[in-house]
Amino acid sequence: MKVATFYKFIQLDNLETWRDRCLKFCEQEGIKGTILLATEGINCTLSGEAESIDNFLQFLQQDDRFLDIEPKISDIDQPPFHRLKVKIKSEIVTMGVNEIKPAISTGKHIDPETWNQIISDPEVLVIDTRNQYEYKVGTFQNAVSPQTDNFRQFPEFVAENLDPNKHKKIAMFCTGGIRCEKASAYLIAQGFEEVYQLNGGILNYLETVSSDKSLWKGECFVFDHRVAVNEELEKGNYELCYGCGQPLSPEERQSEKYEAGVSCPYCYDHLTQQQRDRFWERRRQQELAKQRNQKHIGAEISTN
């Protein structure tokens, strides 16, 4: 089994037709996961047999605009997704700023081999464009977190903290590169002139740069059942709290407020009894399904 993630910013019309074609093809190939379609492009996180994933990429590349797609492929030992969702959205990654056009203008793409040199420059401000819960799992040396809960808050962070006259060089990164496409396009539109972004994101960096040369610290949050991966791109030490969706370290899971499948230190004091009862029942159903050697289909991690 493989997991493939990729995106492409292009002008995409006839969205209903694209939705129907992608849905039909993926159903025939047994592919699960999420495909987001918008007039600005496509964003996919999919799992399936290696041949099925290759077939879908070839299906897309019948359109020349998709020939340069560079999917990130990971091996998995169990299916991370139980459903297939093909959705038409206003944006393939939601910032809420309609005039931004990453297909036309973005920051300078920096390959992983050159990234260390860029972020080691004291004149460069390094920004992690991901959300705070992702940042706490792991990030690059000297990186600043925008302290966001979702990507819509990024423009507010820029307005309150960044100045084109003061911050002459900015380098940004995210998991796979897609958020940086919009973030860098937004900064350029705001008058920032020297803007860099990590090509292929953190996952490409971890795959390319050896651990002895890496400036990455911690693990990398991912949007599937692995929760986080280490520098070898293997499943890390974090687990997801079903109550609030926070990634939890082994230390956090030692808290008296942690109960697997129910609560953690971040949500324990905020859950109602009705919510606790529902989570307990869900955990009981999972345990029963496991005893029967069956799959329990529950909530999946959002890819957007």
Automatic annotation (TrEMBL):
Keywords: Oxidoreductase, tRNA processing
GO biological process: tRNA modification
A GO molecular function held by the record: oxidoreductase activity, acting on paired donors, with incorporation or reduction of molecular oxygen
TM stretches of this protein: none
Keyword Oxidoreductase: yes
Any coiled-coil regions, as ranges: none
Gene name of the record: trhO
Record function comment: Catalyzes oxygen-dependent 5-hydroxyuridine (ho5U) modification at position 34 in tRNAs.
Keyword check for Protein transport: no
InterPro entries documented for this protein: Rhodanese-like_dom, Rhodanese-like_dom_sf, TrhO, TRHO_N
Organism name: Dactylococcopsis salina (strain PCC 8305)
EC assignment: 1.14.-.-
Pfam families in the cross-refs: Rhodanese, UPF0176_N
PANTHER family linked to this entry: RHODANESE-LIKE DOMAIN-CONTAINING PROTEIN 7-RELATED, THIOSULFATE SULFURTRANSFERASE/RHODANESE-LIKE DOMAIN-CONTAINING PROTEIN 2
Domain Rhodanese: from-to ranges: 120-214
Name of protein: tRNA uridine(34) hydroxylase
Family per record: Belongs to the TrhO family.
Catalysed reactions, semicolon-separated: uridine(34) in tRNA + AH2 + O2 = 5-hydroxyuridine(34) in tRNA + A + H2O
